[in-house]
Amino acid sequence: MTAQPIHSHESDRVPRNAEGIAAALDGARRMDFYRELLAASPEEAASVLRRWWCEAMLDTDPAGDRLTAAALDGTLPTTTVADLVARRRAAGLPVE
């Protein structure tokens, strides 16, 4: 018997590297990304990549326009940090 995930895992739309992130960003934002990455110290580079990867994932989200409209309209569902932490603990996921 093999274990199957409850939720199917969609591979990342944006590869988690500088090339993938840059390809997902438009021209002006791509230049901002490169400028920030090149100015970062080696210790800061991972943080810059992580932040811009999140930006690129949001930019390429097929539901992005709907989510933006819901946020602007005040109809986007929200939750508390405490609820998120409780859900992660219940799922056996790390909470840092």
Structural class: mainly alpha
Distance between the termini: 33 Å
Give the % helix. 55-70%
Count of separate structural domains: 2
Secondary-structure element order, as H and E?
HHHHH
Low-pLDDT sequence parts: none
Provide mean pLDDT, rounded: 89
Counted beta strands: 0
Radius of gyration: 17 Å
Question: Could you give a short account of the major beta sheet?
Answer: none
The DSSP helix count reads 5
Shape: globular
Strand content: under 5%
Mind explaining what this structure looks like?
It is a single chain. By secondary structure, the chain is an all-alpha fold. It has two domains: 1-61, no CATH class; 64-96, no CATH class. Helices cover 60% and strands 0% of the residues. It has five helices and no strands. The longest helix has 18 residues, at 42-59. The radius of gyration is 17 Å and the shape is globular. The model has no long low-confidence stretch (mean pLDDT 89).
